Amino acid sequence: MNVTSGLQFQVTDPVLVGGCVGLTLMAAALGVRAWRRSGGRPAVMVVEATRTILIALVLIALLGPEWVRSQVPAERALVAVLWDDSRSMDTVDVVEGEGLVTRAEALAKVVAELETSGAASLEASAGGRFDLVVTPLSATTDPVDGEVSVEERGTDLAGPLDRLLEDPSLRVVLLASDGDWTEGESPFEAAVRYRLADVPIFTATVGSQDQQPDVALEPVEPPAFAIVGRRLEIPVSVESAMPREVPARISLAGPDGLVESRAIALPARRVTTEILEFLPTEPGRVSLTITVDPVPGELDLENNTRTIELDVREESLDVLLVESFPRWEYRYLRNALVRDPGVEVDCYLTLPGMPSRGGGPHYLEAFPSKELLGEYDVIFIGDVGLGPDGLTLEQCENIAGVVRDQAGGLILMPGFGGGHLELQESALGELYPVDLDPSRPRGYGAATPARLRLTSAGLNSGLTRLIPDAAANSYLWSELPGFQWYAAVERARAGSQVLGVHPESIGTTGRRQLLVTRPARTGKVLFMGTDGAWRWREGFEDLYHYRFWGQVIRWMAYQRNMNVGESMRLFFAPDRPKARTTVALNANVMDAQGGGPVDGAAVTARIEAPSGKVERIRFTQPPRADGQPAWGLYSASWRPVEGGRHGVTLRCDETDSTLEAEIAVTARPRERVGRPARPDVLAEVARISGGDVLDQLSPGVVGARLSELPAPAPLVTRMRLWGHPLFGLATAALMAALWIGRKAAGRV
């Protein structure tokens, strides 16, 4: 950097300059005359000299003197070639010869040529004014909080551009990309900053603007585990970028070969979702492969296959059924649960007014203690109230603790007796998904049965999917036998999901909500506002009645049984976590001897990612609403940065117990191969920055465009001497000196 400095005047008119010089000379002449008339006294000479200098300073100030400093940039400036190496560059759409190559392959040849002969070309065409640097986007991208795979990495254009701009010698940037930016700040914002810095961006588009014909499987999100003997529904989405509807075939293959294969029709440029079913036959880890067969004209075949891994377990669910009298709803529900091979059911009847509760298999003589209650995965509460012939406040608090703090499921099934209103005064009242009308404790009865009407959420819920086909399932619900009694529901509470309503009866917020779910901290609550589900057996035997309740209890107990040990349990939400999203981790710690909850313990987790990176997370015990610690519950948050199976080791120091588990994280690609290039983005970046669009990126073209650039303007800084504080101070000092001198010389 060459620096020059000197004095300059704003007023350069010869007449004004000559006038100022003349006045200064006249003042000097008058001063000499006055000194001679005084007989050559030294004091008079000093006074007159001071007067002359003061007049000269005033006249100089009128001419606007400035101290000008000029910084001329070095003769050689920096030219940066920034080229795109993201996943979208694997798209095959660049014509080369008689065939097609990927964008990355086409760009690689140009980059290699620039690296080998680009500097020499600049020397010849641009007069040796520039130094050339060629770098990929990934080399100038901020590191993320952990290593991610190529599939998970997006394209950030603004970040690399901003980091290049930090170099003061940067003169121009050449950006070669397909323009498909998927993360970071808008590149247009970066282009504005380039415009202010007077650094143009020249862009070159790599790739075609046309959508490439392709059929691709979307990433599959498997459940945390599967159950032996239970059919598992796997939703599979297929995206078609074909210009017309095409026939295809989708297949599911397991360890023993083909499981399912069916022909499907793929509409043009749409996403189609299909449900594939898998029936696990033995426990262990199973690898499943999903494939959509190639269609004619498809260019990319790598995205036609997805592989998922499942943990298959033996099922053992513990269910507690609490009821007052053995009404019809209770009897058929009990039969359904007892006959379910994956369920162990216990029943507790309060039998108000009866001298004895009786006995028999599956019946409890006394309500379970706090420790024993925590062993149940799902608890049903029927037409039961408070008091000696119902539940105590302590028992209600214990049930609420299982739901809130131990991921238990609670199913509320009120009845004609109206005991459910009494439960509103207990800890269970906070868990209800609905508000009830206290003026109608016995609800409503009708002579004509009414069929439960599913809402849009109900039509898409796994709880109410009795048949895989959506249209057939909706029709089935319209044909199921109806109910005659229903609870007096006023409204659904905030955070609840309404699955079914009364077809006619109106509450305060529309049709009365009769099938409603709601989360309760770590657990789930379901409200069934009718006592007529047992009627679904009429005409259908046990098929749909059993299927519905089987789906309900497994959905309620799903999180609770993600990872279970002898004295520890680990569950998380969402149950299908994605990379770079926050996952809520929850752990239950129980006493190995008595099974009771352990509070105030030190709980930690060691999480190892597929890449080998290890994280250590400390859990804390959240407080309840009353300020007391949660019932053996410990919580933490975790943000995975890569996909795949993460090994988790949960440890509690107080109980000296550990739990080994795995969490499968889905990594959804930030970019897709096959998407059209976006020259509009690159053209706008060039326009805003003051650059231009290049038809091709070659050393000759680059050198020619750079030679047209003017030499960078020098950086000039100006200091106004006439407005400087020192100038004013000097003037004031001279005026003071003149006044004092005149007094001393006796010339006042």
Tally of structural domains:
5
State the share of residues found in helices, binned by percent.
Answer: 25-40%
Rounded to the nearest angstrom, the distance between the terminal CA atoms is: 56 Å
CATH architecture classification of the largest domain: 3-Layer(aba) Sandwich
Description:
The protein contains 15 helices and 37 strands. 25% of the residues lie in helices and 32% in strands. Strand 4 and strand 5 form a beta hairpin. The chain has five domains: 2-72 and 716-745, no CATH class; 77-211 and 674-707, von Willebrand factor, type A domain (Rossmann fold); 215-313, Immunoglobulins (Immunoglobulin-like), CATH 2.60.40.10; 317-561, Rossmann fold; 563-665, Immunoglobulin-like. It has 748 residues and is α+β, with helices and mostly antiparallel strands. Helix 1 packs antiparallel against helix 2, helix 3 (103-125) packs across helix 14 and helix 4 (158-165) runs parallel beside helix 5. An eight-stranded mixed beta sheet has the order 18-17-19-20-28-27-26-23.
